[in-house]
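Order emerges. For instance:

***
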Amino acid sequence: MNPMRRCVCGGILVLAVLPLSAWAQPPGMSQSGSRGAGIVQGAISWGRLTPREREVLKPFAGRWDRLPAERRRRLRRGAERWSRLTPAQRERARERFRRWRALSPEQRARIRRRFEEFRRLPPPEQRRIRRRYQWFRGLPPERRRELRERWRRLSPEQRREFLDRRRRRLPLPGRSGRDPRASHEAP
C-alpha cells in the first residue's frame, strides 16, 4: 500500500475509531438494543457501497466482505466524515495520523487509556478540562513551553498537591488570591 493511501486509511481509522467509539454498540447489538438485528443492519457488501465510499475505503476492498459488521459500520461513518472534511482538515488529519504512527505502542496505550478515562468523566468535568485545554492552547508558545517545563520539574507529590489545590480552588503557596488569568496562570 502506498504511503498516501496508508495515511488516508489511517486518518479514516483515527476519525472512525477514537471519536466514534463513544457511540459504538457491542457487536451484534442493534440501535434498539436487540441482538441479531445489528449483524444484518450495516453489513453492506462492497458492491453496495457508493462510489465515494469505495474510493475512500479502497484499502479495505479485498477484505471488506470478511470484516465484522460493526467494523464496517464504523469505517463507513469514518468515510462519510472524511468526505465532508476540507482539504486543510484532511491534511491535518493525515499529519495527526503520522504523529500517531510514530508513537511507541506504550505511548499509544497510555493515550487510549487516558481517552477512556476522559470519556468516563461527568460532562461538567469534561467541559472544564476542554476549557483549560483551550486556555492553554491560547497561550504564546514560549509560555506553554515554560509551563510544561515547570510541570516536568515537579515531583509526583508536588504535582498531586498542585492538582488537589486546583480542584479545591485554593491559592498556590506564595501566591495571593489574584485572578490567575491576568498572569497567564491556569484558570
Summary: The CA atoms of residues 179 and 185 lie 9 Å apart.
